[in-house]
Amino acid sequence: APPLYRKHAQYWLMREFARVRKPAIDEALEEANGRFFGARRRLELLGAAPPLRATKTGDKTWMRSTRSQSSLPKPPGVIDERFERERWLVESLERILDEADARRAAKVARREAARAAGALVSCEVCFGDFLDEDCITC
C-alpha cells in the first residue's frame, strides 16, 4: 500500500480501536499488506475482548486502559482518495449486507407466493420454474 494510504489506515485504526495497542495495530496492518479492510477485520476479532494482563498475584485481568485522544497521531493532512473510498465501503458494508439479505428474503417470499398461486413460469429448455422477473431465455 502507498505510504499515504498506510498513514490514513493506521490513524483510523488507532482511532477506532482505542483499546488495542499500537504494535498490534501495526502487526495487523502488516498481515493485511497495509490494507485497511483486512487489518480492521483482524482487529475486530482481536478487539472483541480486551487483552488480558497479569496482576501482581499472577491472576489474569482485563486491561482497562484506552488510548487518550492526545496520544493519537495527527491525521495526515493530505487526503488519500482510495483510502477514503475504502473506509466509506467498510462503514457501509453492514448496511449493504443487510439490504442484500432483505432483498434475498423478499425474493424467496415472492417465489413461495407465486408457487402457492401457481404463477411460476416453466422453462422449456431447463425445465425450471421461475418468477416472471427471473425468466430469461436459455
Number of helical segments with 4 or more residues: 4
Q: From the helix content, strand content and strand pairing, which structural class follows?
A: mainly alpha
Strand order of the largest sheet: 1-2
Question: How many discrete structural domains?
Answer: 2
What characterizes the major β-sheet? 2 strands, antiparallel
Averaged pLDDT, please? 79
Overall helicity: 40-55%
Task: Report the span from N to C terminus.
Answer: 44 Å
Poorly predicted ranges:
none
Return Rg in Å.
24 Å
Give the CA-based shape.
elongated
Report the sheet-strand fraction: 5-15%
H/E series, N to C?
Answer: HHHEEHEE
Record field, number of beta strands:
4
What's this, in brief?
With 138 residues, the protein is mainly α.
What does this structure look like?
The protein is mainly alpha-helical. It has helices at 3-16, 22-31, 36-47, 81-117; strands spanning 52-54, 60-62, 121-122, 129-130. It has a two-stranded antiparallel ribbon. The protein has a two-stranded antiparallel ribbon with strand order 3-4. The longest helix is centred in the C-terminal third of the chain and has 37 residues, at 81-117. The model has no long low-confidence stretch (mean pLDDT 79).
What characteristics describe this protein?
138 residues; mainly alpha; 2 domains; two-stranded antiparallel ribbon
Task: Set out the fold topology.
Layout: H1 3-16, H2 22-31, H3 36-47, E1 52-54, E2 60-62, H4 81-117, E3 121-122, E4 129-130
Antiparallel strand pairs: 1-2, 3-4
Helix pairs in contact: 1-2, 1-3, 2-3
